[in-house]
Design goal:
With about 260 residues, this protein is α/β, with parallel strands linked by helices. The chain has two domains: about 5-95, Nucleotidyltransferase, domain 5; about 105-250, Nucleotidyltransferase, domain 5 (2-Layer Sandwich), CATH 3.30.420.40. The chain is built from nine helices and ten strands. Helix 4 (about 110-125) crosses helix 9. The longest helix has 27 residues, at about 190-215. Bound molecules: adenosine-5'-triphosphate (ATP), pantothenoic acid (PAU) and potassium ion.
Length: about 260
Amino acid sequence: MANSFLGLVIGNSRLHWAWFVDNTLKKAWDTNHLTPAAVAQLIKDWRSNVMSAEIFPSQLAAQGSDPSKLLPLYIASVVPAQTALWQNYSDTTILTLEDLPLSGLYPTLGIDRALAVFGAGHRYSYPVLVIDAGTALTFTGANQNLQLIGGAILPGLGLQLQSLAQKTGALPAIELPAQLPKRWSLETSEAIASGVVYTVLASIRDFIEDWQREFPNSPIAMTGGDSEQLVTYFQSQFPAIAAQIIVDPYLIFWGILSVVGS
Ligand SMILES: Nc1ncnc2c1ncn2[C@@H]1O[C@H](COP(=O)(O)OP(=O)(O)OP(=O)(O)O)[C@@H](O)[C@H]1O
Ligand SMILES: CC(C)(CO)[C@@H](O)C(=O)NCCC(=O)O
Ligand SMILES: [K+]
């Protein structure tokens, strides 16, 4: 099929882009969500073979001037309002659950979760458990028959911190600390960090242990904006668990490549 194409994952916090050439991931980058006007302009430029240097890496922006290199765009979105903005680009394909050779999917499952578990199973092995530490924190598992076993959804680390700050009178907005905070804190910011971090670590450990009771040799792959930070915490708190986690920021892109590539 197409030997060069773009993947766009529309997440709840931002856009995740990938440029694939000859069945390999050549480049991946993130941008903010775009306004309707910005998308319209981008598509207009694109039609006249100009690829905005604000959105695209320079290598790709340079290629834009060659009309024969107009790239097909494959979109996986969990934000319907953003998906709609792209439908004017003629060479757009919206990926759906039906594009995936997984069984047991339920109709409202997020395409990001389905692609990530498919990408992880394809790249590592089945059965596989995927933990996506993004806006939402999700667990998604599939067995050796490429059947969805199921999963769970909770607010991601950023969202937990943000909701505490927004819905209380006295709690400040904090950033995740670089290192594992003290558990028994005598200070508000650190107490919030402790509560959120230790609770999420314990939950992830519990989900992993439960998964491993049924699938003892399954790889555990972690992706999403907070994955590096979480693994840093795991290394301090539960090093044996940390050692079993494969951090891979590209799981969804491996899924797209397996679906779209030749
Ligand atoms: N530059 C950044 N911009 C936004 N979030 C970031 C950034 N770097 C790290 N993060 C963290 O990433 C988390 C969001 O993850 P991610 O970008 O994977 O979310 P997303 O766009 O909703 O994608 P997905 O839908 O795949 O979860 C936030 O909790 C935040 O703490
Ligand atoms: C859970 C999120 C927000 C994670 O990005 C996304 O996969 C989604 O909107 N899912 C739909 C609900 C579900 O997966 O059951
Ligand atoms: K999301």
